[in-house]
Amino acid sequence: MTAAPGPSHAAHFVQPTARRERADLTGLGFRLDGGGESLVFLTPGGGAPELAYWGPRLTGDDTVDTLAAIADRAVAPSQLDAGQRLSWMPHAGEGFSGWPALMAHRNGELLITQLRASRVAADNGEAWIDLTDALAGVELRLTLALDADTGVLSSRARLVNLGAPLTLDWLAAGALPSPHAEVMLFDGRWGREFAPVRQSVLTGMLMKENRTGRTSHHAPPFLIIGEAGFGEAHGEVFAVHLAWSGDHRLFAERLRDGRVQVQGGELLHPGEVILARGEAYETPWLHITRSATGLTGLSDRLHPFVRDTILGGRLKARPRLVHYNTWEAVYFDHDPARLRALAELAASVGVERFVLDDGWFAGRANDRAGLGDWRPDRVKYPAGLALLIAHVRGLGMEFGLWVEPEMANADSDLLRAHPDWILGASGRDQPLGRGQYVLDLTRSEVSDTIFAQLHSLLAAHDIGYLKWDMNRELTHAVSAGRAATHRQTLSVYALIDRVRAAHPRVEIESCASGGGRADYEILRRTDRIWTSDTNDPIERQAIQRAFSIFFPPEVMGAHVGPRASHTTARAASLRMRALTALPGHMGVEADLAAMSADERAALAEAIALHKTLRAWLHAGRTVRLEHPDPGMVGLAVVAEDRAFVSAAQIATPATATPAPLRLAGLSRDRDWTVRPLHPPRRPRATLAQTGFLALGEPVTVSGRVLAHAGLPMPILHAGEIIAFLLTREAK
Ligand code: GLA
User: Fold this and answer.
1) What CA–CA distances, in Å, run from 140 to 90, 242, 276, 328, 497?
2) CA-based, 20 to 30 A from 726: which of 27, 93, 274, 298?
3) 504-529, pLDDT tens digit by residue?
4) Domain count, the chain
5) Of 469, 529, 530, which is best to mutate to test ligand 1, by the most ligand atoms within 8 angstroms of its C-beta?
6) Which residues line ligand 1 (CB under 6 A)?
7) What's the domain range around 706?
């Protein structure tokens, strides 16, 4: 294969120049410390490293030597004489009979590897392990980096072929031995992303694969494995995330000796990666996190990791502008006069960025035409976009634009001129998605043309934001007869990187029919994820809760939709819609002209409130509160001296009167003043004895009382929400 560039990675992981090397590391092992955690890897007999300890920071004598001294495992009858090692790169050549981390062949000749560590270097929480096998003709470098602040481990492998062409079928980015077997995977579909599913891996494998060329709605690349019955605040859990926006495989496997391994890597299609002599394949990063205190403890590590490492701190101290998105107001029906009026209404309710969604470009009368021609439609915009942009800018808002650069319709000038610029297998009809084809971005002339179009659009207009959409799954992802999802994914990254480099001030949103492309590698180069196409707050409460395990609220696109949801037809109050969107990157996506003046006033109030809170909401700690009623979704976002708490009833209450909501995450030794926000106006919705809820009066109570006795809850109908602002009292 043509040597494909590896995924581009943040400077954070660039290897330090002065590296401390210790010769004895190859024979014994090494330890990584960071984020209050220690990991000890042993390299017995100079083989691939084996995780011997992952737990709280080790001190004193609990070192590599101690762990090496106790590293032993019984061998059962009817197994190989030496049992089997479960290393970070388990492979068949050393007698491993589970799913190996490496599968490859040379024109049908099986590659039996016996990798030996030729060099192990560790420094500053990072380790590089070079594993070589001269007979098999491969070299493998394993990179392990433990983030010093958060204790998030990042692992990847790079395989170099030293011999005749080598077909790679599978290379895991790492194999985690798990002490536990209860797995949380994520299912979903359009409009219902991030649906957690729990199962235990009792025997065999629990595997999620994705073959759609984006992270997918149905199998996003996240897996959690933990103690039986783990919850938000209890149980040891490990989160595993493959940072890759193409196809992937993640699984937990119960080995025949009872152990459990978790692997993640890119799903490679037959013949997709064939390495010539000297060529290399590098896996995406696999990010793994441990928490001793349930899922909230995972977010406590992952959110700062995303903020500092994945985003490189670029969203910090920068307010996330409140959006107006035109999609659910006008769809393809663009009338500049109506859009100008909507922009005025948007500005009047406090919107800061006006995003012109799909429908603005040449020939885009509906979703069967126009993709590929990124210039304004002359019929809809006879004078181009400049007038609308000037109007929006004049109202004090930034202007954003929807694009879908990876796609083209047959009915476009682009494909009329270059019908062969698409991915596909010759002689085969491919099923279309939304009537569109996927452009073959692995061809430089295609990428260059799309880049040139985007570049001239951005150079000619005052545009601060792109909503970068991707609405078709990849099928027939073939370029010049070869499977191309891997190269296409890298080409998408390269295209986005190129646009960013040319227009560094333009923010980009990752969207794929809602949350179909949500991962840490796309987030390195984008600033927001469109969580879901559903703006129904009942659906959103559940989606956002699961999404928030891995992503902090400031990258979570959350919009106030119309009263009757366009995706579910369910009606919701403005309060429910607004308070659901408020903690995220807030926006509005509804026909503002169709709202009553009262509704717009309430919306303006909610946006104003969001603006006063966002600085700390978007830097705070997300605590997903637990409540005995599964229909009540409790959330707290906690900063040092204040907190936002909401309780949304998303199904009819399970009990006649609700249990109090116990507030985890507040400092317990301090007093907190609790103020209901928008207290319920229906008197019967409150309990007689909770006058403060009925009257909206503040109360001051200790964090301990709030954690253990909890906040009394009013009776809420399905679709109602109550929220509170808490401030910590001075001592
Ligand atoms: C996708 C997106 C929507 C919207 C439409 C426009 O479905 O997820 O938000 O932008 O495309 O066609």
Assistant:
1) 13, 19, 15, 50, 28
2) 298
3) 999 999 999 999 999 999 999 999 99
4) 2
5) 469
6) 327, 357-358, 402, 469, 471, 511, 513-514, 530, 533
7) 623-728
